[in-house]
Amino acid sequence: MLHIDPESWVPPFEQLRTQISDQIRSAELPAGHRLPPVRRLAADLGLAANTVARAYRELEQAGIAEGRGTRGTFVVGPPSDDDELRAAAVQYARRAAEIGATPEGALDVVRAALTQGVPGSA
C-alpha cells in the first residue's frame, strides 16, 4: 500500500518513487507487474497527475519500470545498487543546484559525509 505524508519534507513524487522502488526490490511488485494508471493513482493518493507521472518517469530513468504507451507502465525488475545510487545522486544534484551550491562544494559535502560515515547506517 502506498502512502504520501503531506507533512514530510520529502516531495510527494520522491515519496512515491521510493515506495514503489522498495516494493520492486522486495519483489512485492514483480517484473511484468502493471503499475496503476497515473490518473487513478493520483486520485487514490490525492496528488496531481503530474506528480505521479514524474515518479513513474524517474522509475523509468532508473531502468526499473517501462512505459508502454497506452498499455501502461510495467515493472522491469529490481533496481541495482548502481541504479539506486544514480537516482540518489540525481536528486542530490538537483537540490544542490536549487540552493546554489557549486559542483565543487556539493562534491566536498558528499566526500565529507562518506569519510565521516552516515548517522544511522550500519
From TrEMBL:
Pfam families: GntR. It comes from Actinomycetospora endophytica. Keywords: DNA-binding, Transcription, Transcription regulation. This is GntR family transcriptional regulator. Gene3D superfamilies: Winged helix-like DNA-binding domain superfamily/Winged helix DNA-binding domain. InterPro entries: Tscrpt_reg_HTH_GntR, WH-like_DNA-bd_sf, WH_DNA-bd_sf. PANTHER family: HTH-TYPE TRANSCRIPTIONAL REPRESSOR YTRA. Residues 10-78 form the HTH gntR-type domain. Signal peptide: none annotated. The keyword Cell membrane does not apply. SMART domains: HTH_GNTR (SM00345). PROSITE patterns: HTH_GNTR (PS50949).
